[in-house]
C-alpha cells in the first residue's frame, strides 16, 4: 500500500539494519486517522470473509487492532503478556520467543473472549519472524476458533515469518513488505 510505504520512507528510521523505528505514527505517538486508513484497506482485502473478532497482542498491536475492529464492527480482543509461566484453566495460553528481545514470554487470553466457532482476524503492527502470530494461532486452535487471516502493517520480508505463515495456508495481508533496509535506504517487495 503506497500510503504506508511513503509514510515509512518519510518518517521511518532504520536502526542497525534490522529494526525500523516508526515511533512518530505507530509505536509511541499514534496517528489514529492514518491507522483508520490502513484499517479500510484491510477491510477491502478481507471483504469476502465473515469475521467475528479481531485478536492482537499488547501493547503496540492494540492501536492497529482497535482501528481494524472499528472498521469491521466487531470486538477487539488482545492477548496479555505474562512473565510467569503460571497460567490457569480460565485462560488459553501460548509461549512465544521474541528474536527482537531474545526472550520467551507467555501470552494469555481469557476463555470468555474467544469462543469455539469464532472467525478470527489476527492483527499486529510488525511481522518479523512470525512468532507472535504463531502464538495467537495456537490460542485460536485451542479455543476451536477459525483463523481467517492476519492483518499486519509492516512485514520485514527478510525475516521470513510472513512467507512461512503463507506456506502454512494463512492469508497474510501486510500493507508494506520490506525486502531490504540499511543506512542507504529501504526497498519494498513489489
Ligand atoms: P515476531 O513476533 O514476528 O517473531 O517478531 P519479534 O518477536 O522479533 O518481535 C518482537 C517485538 O518487536 C514485537 O513487539 C514487534 O512488534 C517488535 N518488532 C519487531 N521488529 C520490529 C521493528 O523492526 N521495529 C519495531 N518498531 N518493532 C519491531 P513487542 O515486543 O511485543 O512490543 P510491543 O508490542 O509491546 O511494543
Record the SSE blueprint:
Elements: H1 2-11, E1 13-15, E2 19-21, H2 23-27, H3 32-45, E3 53-57, H4 61-72, E4 76-82, E5 91-98, E6 103-110, E7 119-127, H5 131-143, E8 146-156, H6 161-167, E9 172-182, E10 185-188
Helix pairs in contact: 3-4
Bound molecules: guanosine-5',3'-tetraphosphate (G4P).
Subcellular location: Cytoplasm
Family: Belongs to the purine/pyrimidine phosphoribosyltransferase family. Xpt subfamily.
Binding site for xanthine: 20, 27, 156
Q: What fraction of residues sit in β-strands?
A: 35-45%
Distance between the termini: 10 Å
Indicate the low-confidence ranges by residue numbers: none
- Number of helical elements: 6
Please compute the radius of gyration using only Cα atoms: 16 Å
Overall 3D form: globular
User: What would you say the CATH architecture is?
Assistant: 3-Layer(aba) Sandwich
Q: How many strand elements?
A: 10
Listed once per kind, the bound small molecules are: guanosine-5',3'-tetraphosphate
CATH class, anyone?
Alpha Beta
> At the third CATH level, what is the topology name?
Rossmann fold
| Class by SSE composition | alpha/beta
What is the element string, with H for helices and E for strands? HEEHHEHEEEEHEHEE
Q: How many domains is the backbone divided into?
A: 1
Percent range of helical residues: 25-40%
Strand order of the largest sheet: 5-6-4-3-7-8-9-10
Oligomeric state of this protein? single chain
Mean pLDDT: 95
